[in-house]
Design brief:
This protein is an alpha/beta fold. The chain has three domains: 172 residues, Aconitase, domain 3 (2-Layer Sandwich); 94 residues, Aconitase, Domain 2, CATH 3.40.1060.10; 122 residues, 2-Layer Sandwich (Aconitase, domain 3). The protein is built from 16 helices and 15 strands. It has a five-stranded parallel β-sheet with strand order 13-12-11-14-15, sandwiched between helices. It has a four-stranded parallel β-sheet with strand order 4-3-2-5. β11, α12 and β12 form a beta-alpha-beta unit. The longest helix is centred in the N-terminal third of the chain and has 17 residues. The termini are far apart. The C terminus is likely disordered. Bound molecules: FE3-S4 cluster (F3S). The site of FE3-S4 cluster (F3S) has 16 residues, from β11 and α15.
Length: 401
């Protein structure tokens, strides 16, 4: 891989040990994946924040780093609400370690907004064609697919290294040739809102890490694309997808139709909704906000919960910035007894581990909750989640899709 003179000097340790380690990581990845050089990035989103996932070894590594990031950088969700961690009964020991992790990132000049929806943050603009180093798989999918920016699915250390250098290695989804659709997905039914998470869950298992192009009967909205991409990144490893006539590269570029075709029909989506029947348990905890709720999703949750009282634990995850911008929605949601929780999520927080069955409206959470939280997962739409929480469930299997 070609390095400039300045990059060579950094690699030789002339700019200090932190930058030497950082460039060493990027050069190693570049060599493995055949990068020709390092390229500038506009921003970084760094995973490896929850103490639940990185433990003491991660805390130690981050704490030893010196210097400041060179591009705007934010964090993935942490293991707890940083301002109100006691509400979800996080232990003081965990909270102490989590705070040390956040302090270590802050020391490096990282803006400690902890969210998997960085594209909703003010001043963290992302545009078509921008090169990024983002980690969280749903954010990566959204940036690549819905915005048309370019990022690989970075690991925490490589995203942090990229932030410290302001550069990443030029391979994978930074290159035109890797952004071409490899498999075509025809969806043979019309889709309602919650169907996109179910569709992503089914499709991700079928396409693995390839780039699919969808042919849909409907025109999905941004939150539906968010749900689709998040689920595909979790049940498979999809970091980029296109929707014919909808997503920016599918509209601007003249893609050839891939030879391999998959058809997904309503019966495959129904299997996801039937999770409740299969699990055979009552959900004890209901969660929405995977990925973190948008303003529109907070509004919808507030409308559904207005004037009602929940009888089960109901957690609504969103970014702190959005929670601050929409106090009226938060007030209505919390008046019902539901909890709006920021900086964290049902998967990376240890708070979920004490429940044996969790209801979600996200294909990604549906894929991850069993492995990451040791709980059974049940899938339903937001209406069904609210009905379950207020105790007036219509008892439709999985919800009112
Ligand atoms: Fe975000 Fe956590 Fe889901 S990081 S995408 S809410 S698993």
């Amino acid at each position: 891989m070609y390095l400039t003179k300045e990059e060579e000097q950094i690699l030789n340790g002339e700019a200090g040990e932190t930058l030497r380690q950082a460039i060493e990581i990027l050069v190693a990845l570049g060599d493995i994946y055949g990068a020709d050089r390092l390229i500038p990035i506009k921003s970084a989103q760094i995973a490896g924040v929850s103490y639940k996932t990185i433990g003491d070894a991660g805390l130690e590594w981050i704490s030893d780093l010196q210097g400041k990031v060179k591009v705007p950088a934010i964090l993935n969700p942490a293991g707890m609400d940083l301002e109100d961690w006691e509400r979800l009964r996080i232990s003081p020991d965990f909270a102490e370690k989590q705070k040390l992790i956040i302090q270590a990132y802050e020391k490096l000049g990282i803006h400690c907004e902890c969210t998997c929806t960085p594209y909703t943050l003010e001043g963290f603009d992302v545009s078509y064609g921008d090169h990024l180093a983002w980690s969280e798989s749903s954010a990566v999918s959204y940036a690549n697919s819905v915005i048309g920016a370019r990022t690989n699915r970075e690991g925490g250390p490589s995203a942090l290294s990229a932030a410290l250098l302001g550069k990443t290695a030029n391979y994978g989804f930074h290159l035109d040739e890797n952004r071409v659709p490899e498999v075509s997905i025809d969806v043979g039914c019309s889709l309602q809102k919650s169907d996109y998470g179910a569709l992503g869950y089914v499709a991700g298992k079928l396409v693995g890490s390839r780039v699919p192009i969808y042919h849909l009967k409907d025109i999905p909205e941004a939150d539906e694309l968010k749900a689709l991409g998040a689920a595909m990144a979790a049940s498979g490893a999809v970091a980029l997808y296109h929707v014919d006539g909808v997503t920016p590269e599918a509209r601007r570029l003249d893609f050839e139709e891939p030879a391999e075709k998959i058809t997904i029909d309503r019966s495959q989506l129904e299997e996801v909704y039937e999770s409740r029947k299969k699990v055979g348990k009552e959900p004890e905890l209901i969660t929405i906000g995977c990925p973190h709720c948008s303003a529109a999703e907070l509004k919808k949750a507030a409308e559904l919960l207005k004037g009602k009282t929940v009888s089960k634990e109901f957690w609504v995850f969103t970014s702190r910035e959005l929670a601050k911008h929409y106090p009226e929605y938060i007030r209505i949601i919390e008046k019902s007894g539901a909890k709006v929780v920021c900086d964290t999520c049902m998967v990376v927080s240890p708070a979920t581990n004490s429940y044996s069955c969790v209801m979600v409206n996200s294909g990604k959470a549906f894929a991850y909750v069993p492995g990451m939280c040791g709980a059974e997962a049940v899938y339903g739409d937001m209406e069904a989640c609210v009905e379950e929480a207020v105790g007036r469930t219509a008892k439709k299997e999985g919800g009112s899709h």
